Amino acid sequence: MKVLLDTHMVLWWLADDRRLSARAQQVIADPGNTVIVSAATAWEVALKQALGKLRMQDDFERAVEEQGFDLLPVSFAHAAELRQLPSIHRDPFDRMLVAQARVEQLHLLTVDAQILKYPANVIAG
């Protein structure tokens, strides 16, 4: 299974955070799954770091790559898919992740109740 991680899932995984459920840990750790992190997540992390809302000691990209996660760039097709999404979530980063999951036929792993309402392959973590 190809799994796109919501931003909080990546951060919780990297920090070994207790909020990461056993199910989410299992999905991410399963060697049969391809785990993917979006450039939109990197953008969100950088923005939160710049605003002082997030502190990370390690370089985010390096940390993601060291975990063996694949990187997903944002494309014009992803942006175009945003037009098809209902206005459920106001967060542009989360909306992009939903669009990417739909275009790339990925499962999106999240605990965000708003994202779970989208017509997409979403895994409640």
Task: Explain how this protein is built.
The protein is α/β, with parallel strands linked by helices. It has one domain (2-124): 5'-nuclease (Rossmann fold, 3-Layer(aba) Sandwich), CATH 3.40.50. 44% of the residues lie in helices and 15% in strands. It is built from six helices and five strands. A five-stranded parallel β-sheet has the order 3-2-1-4-5, sandwiched between helices. The radius of gyration is 14 Å and the shape is globular. The mean pLDDT is 94.
Q: Which keywords apply here?
A:
single chain; alpha/beta; five-stranded parallel β-sheet; globular; 5 strands; 125 residues; Rossmann fold
Short summary:
The chain has six helices and five strands; from the N terminus they run βααβααβααββ.
- How many β-strand runs? 5
Cα-to-Cα separation, first versus last residue: 15 Å
Return the string of H and E elements. Answer: EHHEHHEHHEE
Number of domains: 1
Kindly name the structural category.
alpha/beta
CATH architecture: 3-Layer(aba) Sandwich
Strand fraction equals 15-25%
Widest sheet: strand ordering: 3-2-1-4-5
Shape: globular
Number of helices: 6
Query: In CATH, what is the class?
Result: Alpha Beta
What is the gyration radius calculated from CA atoms? 14 Å
Give the % helix. 40-55%
Q: Which fold name is given in CATH as the topology?
A: Rossmann fold
Sheet bearing the most strands, described?
5 strands, parallel
CATH H level, superfamily name: 5'-nuclease
Uncertain runs are none
Query: Mean of residue pLDDT?
Result: 94
